[in-house]
Design goal:
Number of strands: 17
CATH architecture of the largest domain: 2-Layer Sandwich
Largest sheet: 9 strands, mixed
Oligomer: single chain
CATH superfamily of the largest domain: Pseudouridine synthase
Number of helices: 7
Shape: elongated
CATH topology of the largest domain: Pseudouridine synthase
CATH class of the largest domain: Alpha Beta
Radius of gyration: 22 Å
Number of domains: 3
Order of helices and strands: EHEEHEEEHEEEHEEHEEHEHEEE
Length: 285
């Protein structure tokens, strides 16, 4: 059974769920899932877990990401991107100089209001489901971090390309809205390409329909960014039974754990000792 992580280049115009379906079909597997939604109009890196590595959702969801996005000034829509219905227009168009001056205000830890058309859960329902029925969801601002927000250049009339490096949970459409509002203007996102998610980059991504078994990265390599600890072989049975073990000198946070040549997955220290928190052993159900 395939078990690992695959770096997919999602094409524009399909949902993340449809991309997963295509990967399942291409690999001939039943169990696969993406590690963080990319909007249908977005394209680029979409990390997926295959087999037991679907359990790594929380681990990859928190990774920082890098995007290339284009914003067109002069109007806004209900979705904050070019696919939505126009809800406002303005003749005030900022210059590149104006934009460069405003960008620093959106770098660092910022409070960001998610778009109405988003996957945020409100009362057990997705915000976009309510928005499609004409109901405005009561969304709360979230704290996100924008590590860099750089202009790439002008690509069309009133349209500019940007590079953004940000924390998980950042909406690029909201950055577009907030940048325009800070300049007394309006803008919509016209394109979005995710070029990196954690250690996975667009250069190594494959299209959903071309996914093959050799593209699936084993769990131990997919988690190479975590510290690795090899437990003494005599602890193998206790670890296999889910029993905490005494293992001095381990990192304070989560780490990758192996024992007797077997990769167990992600472990951490608790009050009773070290235990496996995400079991990725291939010989386990």
């Amino acid at each position: 059974m395939l078990n690992g992580v695959i770096n997919i280049d999602k094409p524009r115009g399909i949902s993340s769920s449809l991309a997963v379906s295509r990967v399942r079909r291409a690999l001939g597997v039943r169990k696969a899932g993406h590690m963080g939604t990319l909007d249908p109009m977005g394209e680029g890196v979409l990390v997926m877990g295959v087999g037991k590595c679907t359990r790594l959702f929380d681990y990859f969801l928190g990774k920082s990401k890098t995007y290339e996005a284009s914003f067109k000034f002069g109007m806004t829509t209900d979705t904050l991107d070019i696919t939505g219905a126009v809800t406002g227009e303005t003749a005030h168009i900022p210059t590149m100089s104006d934009i460069i001056s405003a960008l620093p205000r959106l770098i660092g830890k910022i409070s960001q209001l998610p778009p109405q058309y988003s996957a945020k859960s409100v009362g057990g329902r997705r915000a976009y489901e309510l928005a499609r029925k004409g109901i405005a969801a009561e969304l709360r601002p979230s704290e996100v971090t924008v590590y860099s927000f750089l202009p790439i250049g002008e690509i069309g009339e009133n349209e500019y390309m940007f590079s953004v490096e940000c924390s998980s949970g950042t909406y690029i459409r909201s950055l577009c809205r907030d940048l325009a509002e800070s300049l007394g203007s309006l803008a919509v996102m016209t394109s979005l390409r995710r070029t990196r998610c954690g250690a996975f980059t667009i250069d190594d991504a494959v299209s959903p329909d071309e996914a093959r078994a050799e593209n699936v990265i084993p769990p131990e390599k997919a988690l190479a960014g975590l510290p690795f600890v090899e437990a003494p072989s005599e602890q193998f049975k206790r670890l296999s039974c889910g029993v905490p073990i005494d293992l001095p000198g381990v990192p304070d946070g989560p780490f990758a754990l192996g024992c007797a040549g077997v990769f167990f997955g992600i472990a951490s220290r608790g009050e009773r000792g070290v235990r496996v928190t995400v079991n990725l052993r291939e010989d386990e159900v």
